[in-house]
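Quick one:
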Amino acid sequence: MKKFSWRGLSIVIFICVTAFYLAPLAIPQLPEWWAKNKLKLGLDLRGGMQILLEVDTSELSETDARGAVEQNIKIIRERIDQFGVAEPSIQKLGDKRIMVQLPGVSNFEAAEKLIKQTAMLEFKLVAQPEDSKKVMEIIDSNISNNLALFPTLAELDKKDKKILAPDSTKADSLKTTSGIFSSLIRPGERDYEVTFDSIRLVQDLLADSLFKQAVPMGFQLALEKQNTETAKADRRLVVLHSNVELTGSDLSKAKVDYGSATSTDPRTANKPYISIEMKRSGALKFEKVTGDNINRRLAIVLDGVIYSDPNINDKISGGRAQITGSFTTAEASELAIVLNTGNLVAPIKPISTSIIGATLGTDSVRSGSMAGIISMAMIILFMLVYYKLAGFIADFVLVFNIGFILAILTAFGASLTLPGIAGIILTMGMAVDANVLIYERIREELDLGKTPRSAVDAGYKRAVITVWDSNLTTLIAAAVLYYFGSGPIRGFAVTLSIGIIGSMFSAIVFVRSILDTFVITGTTKKMSI
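Output:
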């Protein structure tokens, strides 16, 4: 009975793993469970977008600030995973910055909005009409007394500019308003309305810390969500009580539903909306606030924008509610994602956004592939000319080594990048370098008059130590690059590390096995090397 060979078994596993993970690249019609194991391309090869973000921790304590970036990274990753981006790269840079790379994404605007959205969900009561009127009067009075702090409004006051509704009559246009801020709005059916021309100015004022100080304590102003179906539409301005009745932390889950075409509710009829379920504690809060405020409105506010403010007709038990608005299906899905993944711990602001087109990615793939093919062809030619049959064996195993690198990248779900291709090209040279060390030692043994079998045994025994030393030092360097480097450097380090492991196995085990099995036989007196 032939003795069991661990070397032979390891080679079989090496070849099978390589073939299994490379098959989806060459064979299109494979079962879904197999075809999904396909090599992913990085941002520089596939195209996509890259966003550099900075976390604002100025309002957090030192303890909370330290964990804010890591927690935001976790939330951003959850959002992107639900958004459907394959193999995103999310990394911490320095103390407060986050680098997000989204290869293959096509809807850049939606992806960027999803990442940046704070998702601060709040339920607040709408102020009664008489309270809203008093709030507006106080705001006008406070601004008039401190007009120098509001240069934009001061300029409007100087020019006596009145922004009126497009459908205003001539008589209406002759009316004057009682205050500077009131001149930007007009009374609506239930609240106030801001014309499209004034929306940008009002938005800026609502975000201004000085303006917030002009609003009476216990109240705040918020605009309703923009209507996506109408490009230039007026928007409601609502006065809210600043006290928060419920928050996003009271939510259990959110999902997108679609209203029936026969529904009598115009907010949901044939439209997408968000159904939310609350935790037990949130359901109790919701039941109490609805029971105590019948015939009042409860606004659902997300990141300072009112999505809906339904009237409370009765006490609501069970902790279920709806967020309605002028949603598209995509917007509703994105909102459900951010509600399910929770609020960002601290606000983030974009530092830079880069978009890499698919054409640039295709050119990168072509250039990188061409560089790899040329390098491989030159290495193969050199080994054939200089080492003859032994060189052919090294070239044969080199092809498997390159396939092994791609297979392991696929197996671990990593992405191939341009620096990764550079790592593969470097690995080609290092792979045959191990063979060169061994072959040169074998030549020396043959020159001493030893038989091919003895020369191979002695050559491997003495050269393998050098091969181990040289490759282990390179592995240490690759580990340092991976630990301290960022995206591109890490891609290079990963492929280099895999290549080193594969090249050592190929030179020490694979090539040796072929030499022992097919080249060195009991009667061999000469060796083609």
